[in-house]
Amino acid sequence: MKRIRLRGHHLLCLLGYRGMGYSAAFTANMTRIHATLRRQPDTLVELVDGPDDLCDHFPPDQPRHCEDGNVQRRDAAVLAQSGLSPGDMRPWRELEVVLGARFVPADIPRLCSTCPWLPYGVCEDGLRRIRAGEGLFPVGDGTHDATRNTSCFS
Hints:
This is DUF1284 domain-containing protein. The structure is a single chain. This protein has six helices and three strands, in the order E-H-H-E-H-E-H-H-H. The protein has one domain. The protein is about 40% helix and about 10% strand. The chain has helices at about 10-15, 25-40, 70-80, 90-100, 105-110, 120-130; strands at about 5, 45-50, 90. The termini are far apart. It is mainly alpha-helical and about 150 residues long. It is globular.
């Protein structure tokens, strides 16, 4: 089974993912990773320090924030609160349990105050689902066009 490399804050992003992204290629990649984790929760996730498998598809024509200090501080804060570290490798199923136990929806605005997706409230909703044992939101089930760039930042 292929493992997926994720940075700290992307653990929370995946909880709230609804098919929006920075570009069509980024959105398609995030949808693929999200669907893999949702359908195959035993998929191994390797936590990394810095750019990950989601960052690999960040649009080249936009300022690359994957190495930005704010993003790196967000990663560190999420990992610290979760009790996880770069280099840890866990099945997604276990990470959902950790995230649900260590985070509450009110943590998202504090941890992600500079995130452009924060106003949508989707990460808080996703965290509520995880805490209720409902898993990741279905994406690409006909209610979202997950291959279309639905970003308000393009």
